[in-house]
Write a structure and sequence with these properties.
Helix 6 runs antiparallel to helix 17, helix 9 packs antiparallel against helix 15 and helix 20 crosses helix 21. By secondary structure, the protein is α/β, with parallel strands linked by helices. 42% of the residues are buried. Helix content is 62%, strand content 6%. Helix 22 links the parallel strand 2 and strand 3. The chain has a 6-stranded mixed beta sheet, sandwiched between helices.
Length: 520
């Protein structure tokens, strides 16, 4: 009897030791991955110049205080809630380099997302499968948004944290509080975070219907998490009035088919096929219950089955583009693929869970492939850091505007950059007083860009009609291939179409310069 007890105790102790040891090793590996992700993202952040949207973030974040930020957003100077600019403002105070400081929240957002997905999955699948699902996001556009001064990465991290809290909401009231904070933070960073709320609502309703459990804490968390939108409702209304009529990306039901291609880096509708295929497999394993756990060639099942609520939440996230397009159609709002990035979470969670249904060797191969793909995407920036050329791209951005002003200032004419997206970074990086010689024209009388320039000294944005009525001659700098016969750069084409003289002065790689003489 004593011998039997000893063997039982020893077996249990060894099993516990292996479990604890395996958990510690997996956490150590996860921390190494997060460290590498943070380092690579930081290098990208330092190396990459700001583009138009990021400069909008910088301009608003640099305003003197919260009231000035609120006032600017009340005039639709930018498209995010005030909380995001307060976050980037604080991050910039911690880090003196503009490019790293303003992008630091996004870096932490990607790291937080990877961590949360691992923790979510580890409750249902093996540690290897949880790691597969977590690293899946590193092979999506979310990895690139980790070094952009926009709120998408941090918003996705908040949603990931909300999923983690929702999954454990019956364990403690603290998880209900965490869910409220996470959801409220998400909609306080980006208005379109509200698109995930239908997923939580339907998932929680499925718990109520199928398990006959009304979880008051979960419902309260969902409702309370959306309350910041009431606080920001005036700003949102003003933004909708200003942006909706002229927003460049109008919603289309075709986006339901095309958005997954961008979200999962696939083309020719393979993104949609991926979503449909993974959904079918997911339902096969977890709804139809047709797979037997002891089939030959399959690894032993090491996880509990997903709850019906988790299944529904994952599938709702995977098909969030449908919700997004319908919502945008109803509200007459704009819609782009990046607003649908919570879909990536659905793909990662589903992929991580399904990887537990294949042999362990297959899961290990997937993990290696995902990490290799991410590593290859950072090879160049790491190489540049090693050989001392990390800042070359930023230096080129600084010299571009200066070179144009130096070469063409002798003409004594205004220099008009025909592309708004190109103009703002050029004006931002060109030191004063040279940047005051650069202009950009817009067709609409009072678009977002005109409002934005009220809060900064770096831009000279003017309406087309007013500018051409005052200047009979000026230079136009356009992208190569954007000449009078092309529709890519609207300004040279319009000037030529209206019968003005548009003479090509020079053409170099990526740039064409025209001298314009107004004839009317």
């Amino acid at each position: 009897m004593n011998s039997l007890c000893w063997r039982t105790w020893r077996s249990t102790a060894l099993t516990d030791f292996r479990v604890v040891g395996g958990a510690r090793r997996s956490i150590a590996v996860l921390l190494l991955i997060l460290l590498a992700v943070g380092l690579c993202s930081a290098l990208h952040a330092v190396a990459k110049p700001f583009w138009y949207d990021e400069i909008c973030t910088v301009i608003i974040s640099r305003l003197p205080g919260p009231s000035e930020i609120w006032n600017a957003l009340d005039h639709a100077a930018d498209t995010q809630p005030p909380a995001y600019y307060l976050v980037t403002r604080f991050a910039r105070q911690l880090v003196q380099d503009d490019h790293l400081g303003y992008r630091l929240p996004s870096i932490l957002g990607l790291m937080g997302t990877v961590f949360c997905i691992y923790i979510i999955l580890s409750r249902r699948v093996s540690r290897l499968s949880a790691m597969v699902g977590a690293t899946f996001v590193l092979c999506t556009p979310l990895a690139a948004y980790a070094y952009e001064a926009r709120p998408y990465s941090l918003m996705i991290a908040c949603i990931s944290c909300a999923i983690l809290a929702w999954q454990r909401i019956e364990d403690s009231w603290r998880y209900a509080l965490l869910a409220v904070i996470s959801l409220a933070a998400a909609v306080s960073l980006h208005y379109y975070a509200i698109l995930v709320f239908p997923a939580f609502i339907v998932a929680e309703a499925s718990v109520w219907i199928f398990h006959r459990r009304f979880r008051a804490g979960a419902w309260a968390s969902i409702v309370a998490g959306a309350l910041p939108l009431l606080f920001f409702s005036k700003l949102l209304f003003k933004l909708h009035q200003a942006m909706a009529p002229n927003f460049w990306a109008q919603p289309s039901f075709m986006q339901v088919l095309t958005a997954p291609n961008w979200l999962f880096y696939l083309g020719h509708f393979w993104g949609f096929t991926f979503s449909a295929g993974i959904t079918a497999i997911f339902l096969y394993f977890d709804v139809a219950k047709t797979a037997a756990p002891g089939e030959p060639g399959r690894r032993p099942v090491e996880e509990k089955a997903l709850t019906i609520g988790e299944q529904v939440l994952i599938l709702m996230l995977l098909w969030l583009p449908v919700i997004a397009v319908v919502a945008a159609k109803i509200t007459h709002g704009g819609m782009t693929e990046r607003y649908m990035m919570p879909t990536i979470l659905g793909g990662a969670l589903a992929f991580g869970y399904l990887s537990g249904k294949v042999p362990r060797a297959v899961g290990a191969i997937l993990l290696v492939l995902f990490l290799t793909s991410y590593a290859l995407s950072s090879v160049r920036v790491v190489k540049n850091a090693v050989n001392g050329s990390l800042l070359d791209q930023r230096n080129a951005a600084i010299h571009e505007g200066q070179a144009i002003v130096a070469e063409y200032d002798g003409y004594g004419m205004p220099i008009v950059i025909s592309n708004l997206i190109r103009y703002f970074p050029m004006a931002y990086y060109t030191p004063a007083p040279s940047n005051r010689k650069l202009y950009v024209l817009v067709e609409s009388p009072d678009p977002h860009s005109l409002v934005l320039t009220q809060y900064t000294s770096i831009g000279q944005v003017e309406g087309y009609g007013g500018f051409v009525s005052r200047h009979r001659e000026f230079l136009v700098v356009a992208g190569a291939g954007g000449g009078p016969g092309e529709g890519v750069e609207w300004l040279p084409a319009r000037l030529a179409r209206e019968g003005n003289t548009v003479m090509l002065l020079s053409a170099t790689a990526g740039t064409e310069v025209y001298k314009v003489t107004m004839m009317h």
